[in-house]
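User: Hey, my collaborator sent me this sequence without any context and asked if I could get a structure. I don't really work with proteins. Can you help?
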Amino acid sequence: MMERRQIVAAAMLGDADVLVTLVHVEGSSKRQAGGRLLTTSAISHAYTGTIFGEELEVEIVRTAAYRVSAGAALERHTTLCDEAAEMPYGVGCGGTVDLLYEAAKTPEFNALMFAMRRSLDGESYTVITWLPSKERGLARAVLAADGGVEFATPGLSPVEICDALVNGSRWNGSAGSIHVERFDPPQRLVIFGAGEDAKPLVHMAALLGWNVLLIDHRPQMAQRERFPEAQHVVLATCHNAEAFGVVAADAVVLMTHSYDQDREWLTALLPIAPRYLNMPGSKSRSSLLVSEAAAMLDLSLEACCERIFAPVGLELSDDGPETIALAVISEAHARCTGTPGTSGRLSVLDISAQIRESVMPFYMQTQGVVAAGQIN
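Assistant: No problem. I've predicted the 3D structure and written it out in structure-token form, which is a compact way to encode the shape of the chain:
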């Protein structure tokens, strides 16, 4: 999400030359389809965003302007090990990536930037890109959440757009390949409480590209200058969560450090059931708050506990503001993205399988020993 913000910001400044989009991956890759970088200076080879690794990106940026000299182009890059180089581009991830190169300031580029920019403001868009081939050039359609066509390259028929929308992305090597993306608004984090310990939480959410709404009843705390990375800082004395547009899709952290304030807000938030609701604090304090809120709402303790992550997020060793913020934002991210949040570790079986399936087939194929598909 932060990459989207950065690319949109660079495009709005007019500092855009070539947009490079990862549209297809085979084998291992640091990024999946949808990763982007935008070259912002043909002279200094500057760019925003990331696709794979620095060595590969330097090559991509260096040649980007040339690749689009005759129009948008689809190019394949490999990071498999071969006999010519120990680690191509210094990566050695054992995969291939197909990249779409398109010049900035074309109608198709502007339409994509429009969808990306409006999505950051809270709207959803679907972008369908027909990848360039020998048969046809790049074509694109941008659809609003209600299905209305905001933009379509001349010549695209309603039937083509409908078919792509129904069937989604399609990869055929080149001819007929379609890349479909949905741009949804950033995750919103609502923080009740503008104390000093809210600052690292706001900062970490901003690094993720989230939208942050900060609410506090104290005029000296609810100051925009204290939280420049938040989208909104609101002074509020009422305890009507719906008045601030809090919805079930939000992540919410309750940290006013006032027991009465937290209880009032908790009572207002529990019926909404945000996808992530956290109350940093001791277990005894959190337990008392939940029990009182449950009684006020006539809800069971079990129902309330299912809607709350307390007392502090992921268990980390330190209890400083930065560590607490890290624990909370990590748990919130896992919850909001639907990922388990577990540690990923290599095993001997993993290593053996990757070497056998990714590296050895390609190496043996280049040596003329045997076709990759014949490796057991």
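In plain terms: The longest helix spans residues 348-366. You can pass these tokens on to your collaborator as they are.
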